[in-house]
Amino acid sequence: MNITYTQRMARSEADRQRLHYEIACFYYNDYEEICKILEKETKNNPYSEDTLKTIRFRHIDMMRKVVKKLTAGVYHQRPIRKLVISEGTETTEEVVDEGLEEVLEQANFHAAVKEAYEAAQVFNTVFAMPVFDEQKKTMKIDVILPNEVSVQERKADYLDFDAIKIKKCIGGEVIQSVWTEEEHYRKEGDSIKAIPGNEEKKEPLKNPFAPVIPVSVLRLARVGFLRRTKFESLHGQKRANYQ
Q1: Residue 50 contacts residue 60 (beta carbons within 8 Å)
Q2: What is the rounded CA–CA span in Å between residue 61 and residue 56?
Q3: Which has the minimum average pLDDT: 93-97, 177-181, 196-200?
Q4: Which value, to the nearest 10 degrees, does the dihedral of the CA atoms of residues 178, 181, 184, 188 take?
């Protein structure tokens, strides 16, 4: 029974990844991948393979238009961020810290929050994490869509996770960056490797922020990570392309 359950969960996760990948292609207007998706769906239904070779699909970006309408006015003006100082569960002080604002500005925090909010209109759940920008030599916030991650839900709370795998493309090769409450490493195929620069450390696979996983979650509807996203956004976009 456990093997069957594991196999079903694996298939469910693969289906979720596939669905979110399709939505991401439309969301980012990846025309080449969009055509592949539409060709696969319309092959022999109703078009023959020969007919498909003569068709050039039209892409009308309906998804982004809807998102812009839903988020119009949000972050139109820069919000005031306050540093909240607490003791236990009680807030003792709220201050506007210029130093905090400077750090947030350097890390493109405000733009990242708006980007995440817009993406959540389509995907419901999106992720964000701080990364080091090698070119600018500073920290920035990366917004990560659910097609790029796989999470292990926490048993005590389905809205939280205790492990996450994030897809990354490095040198033309797709790898997974893995974070758990204790470890952080790269996974290339079946091989586990230390993050570059950590190879010589005493504990090369240790999570430097343990037990914290430095990934934040934004969700609009209170649903778990493994639940599929909003179908209507994808179906509506496809209908626009087929017309």
Answers
A1: no
A2: 16
A3: 93-97
A4: -30
Structure tokens at 20: 């979110």
Q: For the chain, how many structural domains are there in total?
A: 1
Report d(CA 82, CA 211) in Å as an integer.
26
Distance from C-alpha of 184 to C-alpha of 104, rounded to nearest angstrom: 25
Q: Are 143 and 217 in contact (CB under 8 A)?
A: no
Return the H-helix or E-strand segment holding 143. strand 138-144
Show the tokens assigned to 76.
């139109």
Distance CA 97, CA 99 (A): 5
Please write the tens of the pLDDT for every residue from 139-193.
Answer: 899 999 999 999 999 999 999 999 999 999 877 788 999 999 999 999 988 899 9
Q: Which domain holds residue 76?
A: 2-242
Alpha helix stretches (DSSP H) within the chain? 2-27, 31-42, 49-52, 62-71, 98-106, 109-123, 231-242
Confirm if 62 and 240 have CB atoms less than 8 A apart.
Answer: yes
pTM of the predicted model, to two decimals?
0.82
Q: Which tokens in the block code for residue 45?
A: 């239904």
Residue 128's φ and ψ, nearest 5 degrees, are -145, 145
Q: What are phi and psi of 159, to 5 degrees?
A: -90, -5
Distances in Å between the alpha carbon of 185 and those of 13, 75, 234, 238, 243? 22, 36, 34, 38, 46
